[in-house]
Amino acid sequence: MKLIPIILPALLLVAGTIGACSFRPDRAGIEEDRLRRFAERSYRPERRLPVDGRDTRIGSEGSEIDVKLLCPTTPGRYPLVIYLPGLGESTLAGARWRDTWAQAGYAVLTLQRPVDGPQVWSSADARRGAFSQLGRKRFGTEQLAARAQAVQEALDEIRRRAGNDAMYACVDLSRIALVGFELGAQTAMALAGERYRSATALRPPEGVKAAIALSPYVSPAGEVNGRYGALDTATLIVTGGADEDRYGLGITPALRQTPFRHLREGNKYQLVLNDGGYTLLNGADIAPPTESSARPAGGRGGMAGGHGGPGGGPSGGMGGGRPGGMGGGPSGGMGEGPPPDGGMGGGERPEGNRHGEQQRAAIVVQSVTLAFLDATLRADDMAAEWLKRNSPGWLEPVGQLQWK
Predict the structure, then answer these.
(1) How far apart are CA 184 and CA 283, in angstroms?
(2) Sheet holding 268-277, edge to edge
């Protein structure tokens, strides 16, 4: 009998704890609901088309180009989006973006020279961790000219094959957008009309109507106004507050925003994400937080890249994906592999909260790039109106869209 006063409060405490747990909101469910409501206001195609992909290699020995083509399986000819990956990436890179565009009715052609792909992380510079030297070489004007020439050669080859090769029957070469990430962004901007040093601007290939630069390369040296002032092509720049320079070339997140200020008025846009960095802008899949990382942690958190497209639900953004992600080597500094990636930034935030922010930012990139493509390649007035009227308030928690 004397034990009752002790046992009863203990039982009541346990019962109260169980009751509290049963009524505690599911954090993952709450975040899923927030993402769903956020995605409902995004720019989306009327329907998502089934997509098929093919791979090949074109070019002669010593100047090969790896090619990956995604096309809707519904017969037809679709505007062409040429995707140029970053340094050390394969043609599987940028799966989240590429799948979104292809499912919305675009032919998406990824081009990467093998010398710019994953094998670059086995180079002597990469093995000894000399990433600044590697970056200066790969972003130099000589290599830029070679990459631009490779894109033109690939387009010429596709035009030759289009008449009798079923692989390219879906491609409409009269409506082309150049989209590049990092190293590919440098190539895309050069082909769109950016001028380097005293050189004259490259003439955009026939059919090019638009360009998108994800994490644009901006040289700290040189006259900026003269470099971008002659660029007439409709342009969208996508960068962010954590868009750091991982090669030590002196490119700051603020510097990446300078091209927009010097572009001519008319169909020029810039999306600046609050925390967008390398591992968001490269379009790799966003890994959910693990149980061990669900508590607050100091410093920056990266985003796992590797495989998968956008995923089917709201946490996955705008569409279901296929395998594909960053094609680089193992991460790390010294030894074989790319330099460390930047994360989303943000300091002391719970991993789950950061994951939700990453997903929202990815949905914004998908929506804005797709609306831009529709507005420029399809002359869709509703898409252009969405960019200027609907998107600013919607994406305000994640970033800012500017235009002129």
Answers:
(1) 13
(2) 51-58, 65-72, 107-112, 78-84, 171-181, 208-214, 234-242, 268-277, 399-403
Give the C-alpha separation, 2 to 102, whole Å: 74
Structure tokens at 133: 């030297």
Residue with tokens 């010097």: 262
In whole angstroms, give the CA distance from residue 181 to residue 278. 9
Strand partners, 255: none
pTM score: 0.81
Domain boundaries in the chain?
Answer: 26-403
Dig out the tokens for 302 from the structure.
């990266």
35 three-state secondary structure: helix
8 A C-beta contact, residue 239 and residue 337: no
Place of tokens 């290699």: 57
- Backbone angles phi and psi of 400, in degrees to 5: -140, 135
Reply yes or no on domain 26-403 having CATH 3.30.200.20: no
**Cα dihedral across residues 12, 18, 23, 24: positive or negative:** positive
Strands (E), 87-154: 107-112
Using DSSP's 3-state secondary structure scheme, residue 114 falls into: helix
Q: pLDDT by residue for the chain (404 residues), tens digit each?
A: 433 343 334 433 434 444 444 444 577 778 788 889 999 999 999 889 999 999 999 988 878 999 999 999 999 999 999 999 999 999 999 999 999 999 999 999 999 999 999 999 999 999 999 999 999 999 998 999 999 999 999 999 898 888 888 889 899 999 999 999 999 999 999 999 888 765 556 778 999 999 999 999 998 776 676 788 878 999 999 999 999 998 999 899 999 999 999 999 999 999 999 988 888 999 987 766 554 443 333 333 333 333 333 333 333 344 333 333 333 333 334 456 777 664 444 444 445 567 778 899 999 999 999 999 999 999 999 999 999 999 999 999 999 999 99
Kindly report the three-state secondary structure assignment for every residue of 238-261. Answer: EEEEECCCCCCCCCCCCHHHHHHH
